[in-house]
Amino acid sequence: MVKFFKYPFDLFYSSLEGLGKFFTLISLSIKAIVDWRENLSNILDQIIIIGLKSLPIVIFTSLFSGMVAGMQATYQFDIDTGIPTNLIGQTLKYLGSVIGTSVLLELSPMVTALVMTGKIGATITAEIGTMRITEQIDALESISFNPISYLIMPRVVASLIMFPYLVIVGDIFGLIGGLVASTSSYEPLTASMFFDGLKMNTNLVNDCVVGIIKGLFFGFAITSIACYKGYYTEGGAEGVGKATTYTVVASCISIVVLDYILAAILL
Amino acid sequence: MIKIQNLYKSFGDRVILKNLSFSIKSGECVSIIGKSGIGKSILLKHLIGLMQPDSGEIYVNDKLINDLTFKELQKVRNKISMVFQFGALFDFMNVIDNVSLPLKKLTDFSDKEIEEYAKKSLTEVGLEGAELMMPSELSGGMRKRAGIARAISANPEYILYDEPTTGLDPIMTHSINNLIKKIHNEEKLTSIIVTHEMKTVQNVSDRVLFLDDGAIKYDGPPYSMHKSKDKTVLQFLEVSGSL
Question: In 3D, which of A189, A247, A205, A257 has the Cα closest to residue A222?
Fold first, then answer.
């Protein structure tokens, strides 16, 4: 009975403690950026892992999510919209604008972040968590390495550099997907109409920048959560599994919440 | 010299070390023994600053190492190496890179010199030819040897071994014991070994600290342990077949 009433307090206390540890670790890793020269090869390795090696999956998912956006937009247009037949030609070009905006503002940053949560977030937690439980992090410290400069900072820096770049790649392939799917599934729409529609959107550059900013925040959230959970892993192989699951769940939730907050601020 | 005064460490309600005090002179080879989970490895991690005590002082060469900044602690760690229980080799590096890492961090040697020293350390532990192998390709005994090679590569004053023979067959245990003894004598190090193996204690160390219930129950040479009046010490000797 006592346990039952104690549980919420314990949960609150451990959550506060966890938040404190998280922000301390992240502030230390940001402080450790001054050691970038010493850890340049690690940063470059992480740039390759987080950025270049993730390109195929980002291209693939962005292409298909753009195609879904294209199909859905033309489907909605194709059903009885109530637009008089003689006006359809003029309104068709808005499809390019609608698809472009959804890809740049929402689909590309969101899909990239969710895919990267599974690919990079889980990998980082599993790697650092395994190093923790096999005493490799203790071994690093014992030979005078700062594990935060050596392990955490390069991953955070690499994600800050590479996530915007991945979002841009996602934008390009999302738009290509949208173009291909919408023009092939809805005959009256041509590629030139699609591009006309894109050009009509005067906020196109702004939408693109908002998407990139979102990517930057999502990347930081994913890597910092992943590093934190990995760094404080305990409980052997089972602990690594739990930490990895936590990373994926917490990252997905923080992406959705951040998406709303950033939309409210930036739009 | 390592000196510990009134060391106290607890995790929640569980008290691990209670007012522990002892000192280890330079050149000594000391074994720390006791039951599993009694805090031997925790004690070892305090000596290299990987854990902080709740209270008490730890001195390394007369320098108090509690509450040092990371940079100050780095200077102390340059004098101490630790061999971890399962080697703790960095699994993203091959053997020679693992052994070279302390040299890269702690010395101003050229790449060629680092390679030479690393190869020398590997030869010393009998791992010549395994330079390019990855940790996942090594057997338990080879991992421990590679861990020892990494620990001795940067020429430390103190070497701490955390259960160096755990999980090894008797022949490999004997071979690791001989290696520890050889390194201790040839490199003129101060060695501190946490172990369960009475053979390691008897063959390698000059002095034994028996840890139980957070305190030292025996401090003396291995050959007089049987004269101890402490029940746990005698039980430990009896069960390990050393009485």
Answer: A247
Q: Evaluate whether A148 touches A27 at the Cβ level (below 8 Å).
A: no
- pLDDT tens digit sequence for A43-74: 999 999 999 999 999 999 999 999 999 988 88
H/E element, B147: helix B140-153
* Chain-chain contact of B84 with A145 (C-beta, under 8 angstroms): no
Q: How far apart are CA A104 and CA A211, in angstroms?
A: 6
What is the C-alpha separation between B18 and B206, in angstroms, rounded?
25
Supply the DSSP symbol for B217: E
CB of A48 within 8 Å of a chain B CB? The answer is: no
pLDDT, tens digit, 9 for 90 and up, residues A133-191: 999 999 999 998 999 999 999 999 999 999 999 999 999 999 999 999 988 887 778 88
Strands, sheet with B55-60, edge to edge from the N-terminal-most edge strand: B14-24, B2-11, B55-60, B63-64
Q: Is the CB of A143 inside 8 Å of chain B's CB atoms?
A: yes
Whether residue B88 and residue A136 make contact (CB cut-off 8 A), yes or no, is yes
Q: Which domain holds residue A146?
A: 2-266
**CA-wise closest residue to B89 among B101, B77, B79, B78:** B101
For residue B58, what are the β-bridge partners? B4
Domain count, chain A: 1
What does the alpha-carbon distance between residue A179 and residue A96 come to, in Å, rounded to a whole number? 8
Tokens of B32: 């720390």
* Whether B69 contacts B52, CB under 8 Å: no
